[in-house]
């Protein structure tokens, strides 16, 4: 396919991608960003692009996607981050991070946003 037909196919593909913020895993990073605000993660953490996320009692989450470990215990991978977000104290007993009652779907989207912070 060449010429105007291929340009149309390319344009349609770009429009579909622009209108969809979901990754191949089904995660929605934009929703995750909003959820980080909703769960008030910013009371303790500085989180780029999350309004009012200016807390200083816990580490800043700036460039989270480049980190090697979660809480110094788990490799920083989406599945591990979701597990941490859902139940931090089951991952690291005595962890300062509280259990916020994050659902599986919410953790997936929150992790997608955090993993995108580079």
Care to describe what's here?
There is one protein chain. Residues 6-20 have low confidence and may be disordered. Helix 2 packs across helix 5 and helix 3 (78-86) packs across helix 5. By secondary structure, the protein is mainly α. It has a two-stranded antiparallel ribbon. It is 42% helix and 3% strand. A hairpin with a 3-residue loop joins strand 1 and strand 2. It has a domain at 29-90 and 102-116: Cytochrome Bc1 Complex, Chain D, domain 2, CATH 1.10.760. It is built from five helices and two strands. It holds the Pfam family Cytochrom_C. InterPro entries: Cyt_c-like_dom, Cyt_c-like_dom_sf.
Mean pLDDT: 86
Rg result: 17 Å
CATH topology of the domain at 29-90 and 102-116: Cytochrome Bc1 Complex, Chain D, domain 2
> What is the global morphology?
globular
Task: Describe the strand arrangement of the main beta sheet, using strand numbers.
Answer: 1-2
Short descriptors:
42% helix, 3% strand, 2 strands, 118 residues, mainly alpha, Cytochrome Bc1 Complex, Chain D, domain 2
Write the layout of secondary structure elements.
Elements: H1 4-18, H2 29-38, E1 69-70, E2 74-75, H3 78-86, H4 88-91, H5 104-115
Antiparallel strand pairs: 1-2
In brief:
The protein is mostly helical and 118 residues long. The chain has a domain of 77 residues: Orthogonal Bundle (Cytochrome Bc1 Complex, Chain D, domain 2).
């Amino acid at each position: 396919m060449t010429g105007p037909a291929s340009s149309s196919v390319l344009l349609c593909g770009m429009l579909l991608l622009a209108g969809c913020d979901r990754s191949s895993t089904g995660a929605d990073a934009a929703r995750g960003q909003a959820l980080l605000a909703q769960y008030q993660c910013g009371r303790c953490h500085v989180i780029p692009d999350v309004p009012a996320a200016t807390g200083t009692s816990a580490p800043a989450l700036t460039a989270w996607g480049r980190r090697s470990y979660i809480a110094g215990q788990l490799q920083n991978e989406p599945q591990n981050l979701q597990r941490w977000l859902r139940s931090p104290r089951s991952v690291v007993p005595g962890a300062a991070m509280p259990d916020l009652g994050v659902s599986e779907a919410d953790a997936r989207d929150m992790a997608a946003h955090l993993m995108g912070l580079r």
